[in-house]
Amino acid sequence: MPKQSAKLDIGIKDKSLENLPVWCKLSDCNRRSALGFVGKIMAEFNIEPAQRIKRLPPYLFGRLNALKLAKRQQGADIIDLGMGNPSDPVPQIVIDKLCEAAQDPRNHRYSASKGIKGLRKEIAKKYERKWNVQLDWQTEVLTCIGSKEGFSHLCLAMLGPGDTAVVPDPAFPIHNYSVALAGANVISVPLGNDEKFLKTIAKVVEHLYPKPKLLILNFPHNPTAMTVDEGFFETVVDVAKRFGIAVIHDFAYGETCFDGYKAPSLLSVKGAKDVGVEFITMSKPYNMAGFRIGFVAGNKNMLDYLATIKGYYDYGIFQAIQIAGIIALRHCEDDIIAQNERYRSRRDVVCEGLSRIGWEVQKPRATMFVWAKVPKEHSGGKGSIDYAMDLMEYAEVAIAPGRAFGENGEDYMRIALVENEQRLRQAIRNITRFVQQRPIRKAKSGKKD
Ligand SMILES: Cc1ncc(COP(=O)(O)O)c(C=O)c1O
Fold first, then answer.
1. Whose alpha carbon is nearest atom 5 of ligand 1?
2. CB 3.0–4.6 Å: which of 100, 257, 288, 359 could bond 354 by disulfide?
3. Ligand 1: which of 250, 277, 343 to mutate, judged by most atoms within 8 Å of the beta carbon?
4. Tell me, what's the pLDDT at 57?
5. β-strand 369-373 against 397-401: which pairing, if any?
C-alpha cells in the first residue's frame, strides 16, 4: 500500500487532462486522502454571516420560547398571550373565495410584485371610504407580503451605512431591526403622543448631523397601545417638511379600535403624501396573519424605491390570496366590528383582573394588547424578562416582557388578547395566585395535574 498523503502530486500521464481542476485528476487513493484533508480544513472553516446579521441585538424572546417549549413538552398547559398572533377565524366569505380562486390555474402563476390591479384599486377605495383619502392606485398604492416585509424592504431601499432613523422607544422590534439590517443606525426617542414628544423629535432632527433620514411612527402603538388624536399628524407633517425628514407610519392597528375611538390616518393630513407613507395590514382586522398580505400607500417616490427592491426580490403574493383580499376589503366591515368587540371585552377582563392585583393598567382604546406596569413588590426588582420567565414557570402564562421592545419597556408586560375570555380569566387567576406567592404547580415531566 502506498503511504497516503494529502500531497496532490498525482503524476498525470495524459497531457489532455493537465488543464482540468486538480480535484478531477486525483487517483482514487489520493482522492480519499484529499477528502480527509479537505474535511479537516472544513472542520476548521468558520462560516461567518454578513456584518448586518452581527449588528442585530440579541433575540430577547429566545429564552422565553425555549422555556415555553420545554414546559409544553412536560405537559404544562401554557396560556400563551405572548405574541400578537390572532387566533380567531378569517371571515368565511374570504376563505370561500380563496378556495375558489385556488382552483383556477391562472392564479397559480407568478403574480405582480406590486399587487394585482383589482386589489390596489380596492385599497384606494377603502382609504377614501374610511379616512377620506384620495389615492391613485397606480402610483400611490403597493401590496406587500405582509406589512412587515414591505416595511423592512422600504428601510433597505431608503437607508444605508451612515444614515439614521428616529424610532420611539419602546417599539415593535422590526422598527429597529429593519434599520439595523439596512446598515443604518437608530436614534431612540422616548415614546409619546403629545406636543412634548413631537418637540423632542423636531430638536433631534434639527440638531443631529448627519440629519436623520426617516421618522418611524406607529399609532395605535404596539406594544403600549398608545393612541393619538386628530391634529397629531398635522404637526408630524409640519415637522417633516420643516426639517426634511421622511415619515413611515405603521398603521397596523388603525382599524382595531373600540369605545368609539377612530384612529387618524397620517395620509388624511394635507401634504402627508409629500413626506411619507403608511402601512396597513390584513393580519389584524381580518385575522389574515398567515396569509401574508398588507399594503403601503402614500408618497410616490418612496413607493417607487420599495417597488424597485421588491421587483428584484419577489414575484408578489399568491394571486388567490390577493383575490380573497379584495373580498375582505369589500365585504367584511361588519367582521371587523365583531372582532373589535371581542378584543374590547377581552381587554376588560384583563384590565379589570390585573388592576385588582395592583398592576398599573390603563384601558386601551385600540390594539389587541394590554400594557401593564408590574409593581416592584411583585417583581421583586427583577427585570421584565426574568419576571416573564417566572410567570411562565410558575403561573403557566406566557406574556411578553416590556424590555423586549426597548429600554423604556422595562417594568412593563404586554398581554396579547389572543385567547377567549375563559382562558384569559384562567390566566388572571394563575397570575393572581403567583403574585400571592402560591405557585400553581411545578411542571412534572410527561404529566398534567
Ligand atoms: C405594529 C405592527 N406592525 C406590523 C406588524 C406585522 O404585520 P404583518 O402581519 O402585516 O406583517 C405587526 C404584527 O404584530 C405589528 O404589531
1. 148
2. 359
3. 250
4. 79
5. unpaired
From the CA of 154, how far away is ligand 1's center (Å)?
A: 15
For the segment 277-315, what is each residue's pLDDT rounded down to a tens digit? 999 999 999 999 999 999 999 999 999 999 999 999 999
pTM, 2 dp: 0.89
Among 255, 280, 284, 292, the mutation site with the greatest number of ligand 1 atoms within 8 A of its Cβ is: 284
Which CATH number is 92-332 given? 3.40.640.10
**Ligand 1 atom nearest residue 281's Cα:** 10
Residues 338 and 332: their CA atoms lie apart, in Å, by: 10
> For residue 8, is pLDDT > 60?
no
CA distance 241 to 274: 8
- The domain segmentation of the chain, as residue ranges, is 1-47, 59-88+334-435, 92-332
Give the binding-site residues of ligand 1, using a 6 Å CB cut-off. Answer: 84, 146-148, 172, 218, 222, 250, 252, 281, 283, 289, 294
Strands 185-190 and 214-217 come out as unpaired
Residue 15 scores a pLDDT above 90: no
Distances (CA, A) of 242 to 32, 153, 199, 245: 70, 26, 12, 8
Atom of ligand 1 minimally distant from the CA of 282: 10
Which triple of cell numbers denotes residue 48?
461567518
Closest CA to 34 of 16, 19, 21, 46: 21
- From the CA of 262, how far away is ligand 1's center (Å)? 19
β-bridge partners, 276: 247
The DSSP-derived string for 260-306 is T--PPPGGGSTTHHHHEEEEEESTTTS--GGG--EEEEE-HHHHHHH
C-alpha cell at 328: 375582505
Closest of 136, 118, 116, 138 to residue 128, by C-alpha: 136
Q: What is the pLDDT of residues 155-212, one digit of tens each?
A: 999 999 999 999 999 999 999 999 999 999 999 999 999 999 999 999 999 999 999 9
Q: Is the pLDDT of residue 81 over 70?
A: yes
Topology at the third CATH level for domain 59-88+334-435: Aspartate Aminotransferase, domain 1 (3.90.1150)
